């Protein structure tokens, strides 16, 4: 089996940064020449790109927000449409979706990114991947997984977000070894297998690359969802984090100590509310600069995701920085009854309850503008409502409003026809 770790990722930190600086200078010159947004951005803030002579010099350039990207979307494009071969877009969960165009070079970069990311999770050319996420609806992730698996030289089964019955039929017939799936759906696979006498523990599946939901807490240990899967089904779980805007994935290696940064593709910063770097290991907003992108490169783009960065070398042999699990999205922070809560903390409490089959968290404002939390859930069997309230009180120091619903009614909320992924959070607060 060929070595699947890019050589740059095992080099000393100084060499990695020197390599990144070379790519950064090329990127800055490229966007200044070809991107109307960055031409104006640099002129407005009197930025001389020749004075960016280290990675830390990036702080001389004001960061860019998602609102700016939404408002001036096409001004970020750096090529004409005659060079574009694919158009992806963001999910639009935080307002207007952003179109992210790709050139032939960008698609090649995307395939490279995902192939080394899947290899980071232990995948190789001898594996067969079953993809349980959509590849249509302009969804970059599904496209990236498919292109990455092919680049890796592995087998590919494009089942998509089909029902558990069809997933198990494909597993039985084609013997995939790795699943790419939303982790809560793995629970549904297990439940279906147990209810239909499928010996899933003896299936061909060895591991799962988990997307869209956290399987680790902020201390890098398996959270309730991750534990429920591994305690039932002894497969290896690997978390991965990505976004459409950055076209790059951060995937765990076998050490499970955060998703590895690919320094040839991206530069990451973790910033505080004043746009200053935080100390390694502290929470802040992930801010990224893409490298090697033609269609829509981004310089110091604030993702809105709150997470940690770990700079120490990893036991796997890579010296690249790692991004820890997301604490939550900055815009989704909740001030509730005197405490600060991020939605993933609510999800974790619910994932601990094995009788809850489906849930959705709704955030609203009361008449005074205070945050309100309504947890909608479906229960498979009788449960102790007081115990559930106590769990919330213990874990969050506050108890949200709880609303039990039928599975069918809640399913329509969580899985709307026009959504590419389950809707676990609805934020209808007044701005």
Class computed from helices, strands and strand pairing: alpha/beta
Count of strand segments: 21
Number of domains: 2
CATH topology of the largest domain: Rossmann fold
Total number of helical segments?
Answer: 11
Class of the largest domain in CATH? Alpha Beta
Q: Mean pLDDT score, rounded?
A: 93
End-to-end separation? 54 Å
In helices, the fraction of residues equals 25-40%
Strand content: 15-25%
Instruction: Describe the main β-sheet briefly.
Output: 6 strands, mixed
Radius of gyration: 22 Å
CATH architecture of the largest domain: 3-Layer(aba) Sandwich
CATH superfamily caption of the largest domain = ANL, N-terminal domain
Describe this structure in words.
This protein has 431 residues and is α/β, with parallel strands linked by helices. It folds into 2 domains: 1-326, 3-Layer(aba) Sandwich (Rossmann fold), CATH 3.40.50; 333-427, GMP Synthetase, Chain A, domain 3 (2-Layer Sandwich). Helix content is 30%, strand content 23%. It contains 11 helices and 21 strands. It is globular, with a radius of gyration of 22 Å. 39% of the residues are buried. The mean pLDDT is 93.
């Amino acid at each position: 089996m060929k070595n699947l770790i890019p050589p740059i990722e095992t080099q000393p930190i100084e060499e990695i940064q020197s390599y990144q600086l070379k790519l950064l200078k090329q990127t800055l010159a490229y966007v200044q020449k070809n991107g109307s947004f960055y031409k104006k951005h640099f002129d407005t803030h009197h930025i001389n790109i020749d004075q960016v002579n280290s990675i830390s010099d990036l702080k001389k350039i004001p960061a860019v927000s998602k609102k700016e990207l939404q408002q001036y979307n096409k001004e970020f494009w750096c090529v004409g449409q005659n060079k574009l071969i694919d158009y992806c877009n963001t999910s639009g969960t935080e307002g207007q979706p952003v179109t992210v165009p790709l050139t032939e070079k960008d698609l090649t970069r995307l395939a490279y990114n995902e192939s080394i990311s899947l290899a980071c999770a232990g995948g190789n050319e001898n594996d067969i991947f079953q993809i349980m996420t959509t590849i249509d609806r302009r969804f970059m992730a599904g496209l990236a997984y498919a292109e990455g698996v092919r680049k890796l030289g592995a087998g590919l089964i494009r089942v998509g977000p089909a029902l558990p019955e069809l997933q198990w039929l494909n597993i039985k017939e084609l013997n995939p070894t790795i699943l790419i799936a939303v982790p809560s759906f793995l629970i549904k696979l297990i439940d279906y297998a147990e209810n239909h006498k499928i010996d899933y523990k003896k299936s061909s599946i060895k591991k799962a690359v988990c997307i869209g939901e956290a399987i680790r807490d902020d201390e890098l240990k398996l959270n309730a969802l991750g534990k429920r899967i591994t305690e039932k089904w002894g497969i290896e779980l690997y978390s991965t984090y990505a976004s459409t805007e950055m076209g790059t994935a951060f995937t765990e290696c076998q050490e499970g100590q955060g998703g590895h940064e690919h320094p040839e593709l991206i530069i990451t910063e973790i910033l505080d509310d004043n746009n200053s770097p935080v100390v390694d290991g502290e929470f802040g907003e992930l801010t990224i600069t893409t490298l090697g992108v033609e269609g829509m490169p981004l310089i110091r783009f604030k993702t809105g995701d709150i997470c940690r960065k770990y700079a120490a070398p990893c036991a796997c042999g890579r010296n690249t920085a790692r991004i820890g699990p997301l604490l939550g999205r900055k815009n989704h922070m909740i001030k509730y009854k005197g405490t600060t809560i991020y939605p993933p903390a609510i999800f974790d409490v619910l994932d601990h309850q094995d009788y809850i089959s489906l849930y959705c968290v709704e955030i609203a404002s009361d008449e005074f503008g205070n945050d309100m939390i309504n947890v909608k859930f479906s229960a498979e069997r009788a449960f102790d409502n007081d115990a559930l309230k106590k769990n919330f009180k213990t874990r969050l120091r506050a108890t949200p409003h709880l609303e039990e619903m039928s599975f069918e009614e809640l399913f329509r909320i969580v899985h709307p026809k026009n959504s590419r992924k389950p809707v676990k959070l609805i934020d209808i607060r007044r701005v």
